[in-house]
Design a protein that fits this description.
Length: 95
């Protein structure tokens, strides 16, 4: 059983933190409805964020989810093998 000397301050800090988070969430709530975009504003934003040809060249590569398949193809063509594993995800089987 935890000591009451440690338990009471921990309970107080936990309740205080929860109260502070709740107050912060309520204080940041917008009071009025957000402004709506006009059709011209939407089109301008859409042009700004739309992917352009040649912008994502990595998407033009034939990626192989199977390391074994990629290895066979690379060997047949005499090319090196490039593996790519992103952070937060497990690498492909065989890596």
């Amino acid at each position: 059983m935890p000591s009451t000397k440690v338990f009471k301050p921990a309970l107080f800090l936990t309740a205080g933190t929860a109260g502070g988070l709740l107050y912060g969430a309520l204080a940041c709530t917008p009071e009025k409805e957000p402004r709506r975009l006009t059709a011209a504003e939407f089109e301008k934003l859409h042009r700004m964020i739309k992917r352009r040809p040649g912008e994502s060249r990595w998407m033009e590569i034939d990626w192989y989810p199977s390391v074994w398949e990629a290895r066979r193809k690379a060997a047949a063509e005499g090319k090196p093998l490039f593996t790519w594993a992103g952070s937060g995800s497990a690498p492909a089987p065989g890596c």
